[in-house]
Amino acid sequence: MSARVTDDSTIDETTAAQVTRNIELAFEFTSAIFADPSQADGMPMGATVVLIPDDDPDLAEDNLATAITAFRSGRDVFLRHAGSRSING
User: Fold this and answer.
1) Is residue 25 part of a domain?
2) Reported pTM
3) Which of 32, 22, 27 is nearest to 86 (CA)?
4) Per-residue pLDDT tens digits for 41-82
5) Hey, which residues does 86 pair with through a beta bridge?
6) H/E stretch holding 82
7) 6 domain residue, yes or no
8) I need a labelling partner for 33 at 20 to 30 A (CA). Which of 3, 42, 83, 84 fits?
9) Residue 88 within any structural domain of the chain
10) What is the pLDDT of residues 1-30, one digit of tens each?
11) Are 51 and 26 in contact (CB under 8 A)?
12) In the chain, how many domains are there?
C-alpha cells in the first residue's frame, strides 16, 4: 500500500481506512490460526503475509502491489485470500 500524506503530514482518509481494514484482516487471520493451526499450513517461516480481501477491490489491488514489491525485493511472500467468507476456511 502506498501511503498518501497530505501537506500537513497527516494520512488521508483512504489510506487510514485501508490501514484499519488490513489490521482487521490480520486480526481475523491470526484468530483463525489460533483456533485452527492448520490454517497456517504451507506458510513459509519468515514469509511476508499479504491478505487479499474478498470485499474490497481497491484494497485487494493495493495489497497485491505490496506483495509484488516485497517479492521483487527478495522476500518470500505468502498470499492469502481473506475476508468474510474465507478467513475461517
Assistant:
1) yes
2) 0.77
3) 32
4) 999 999 999 999 999 999 999 999 999 999 999 999 999 998
5) none
6) strand 77-82
7) no
8) 3
9) no
10) 555 555 667 888 988 999 999 999 999 999
11) yes
12) 1
